Amino acid sequence: MSEKVYGSRCTACGKVSYPGHAVCPACGGEEFEAVAVEGEGKVLTYTDVYALAIDYETRYLRLAIVEFEGELRATGQPEDPAPQIGKRVRATIGTVRQVGDRGIEGLIFVPA
Length: 112
Description:
Layout: E1 5-10, E2 16-17, E3 32-37, E4 40-49, E5 61-68, E6 73-78, E7 88-99, E8 102-111
Parallel strand pairs: 6-8
Antiparallel strand pairs: 1-2, 1-3, 4-5, 4-7, 5-6, 7-8
């Protein structure tokens, strides 16, 4: 398991994006520096996705959008059976999907 997930900060205007972009959506800049997606934030919204690819072994996938300091918003999987809008969560890294013997890592949000 890796230790961090990274977004990018535009060196021209400071806009932070996750995932990163080739061109800054705020100013059109093309140079970025890596910034770790970590710490605490609040749940802006969440949803359950039922239209998954056939190779998913789960019936549905719950996703949440969390806002962190500096206006960074990131999508990940909440590890909370009863997520709530406005609830404080902490970003962690973990296996979000298994493909055969290989685990795919991503953001998991746990209650703060």
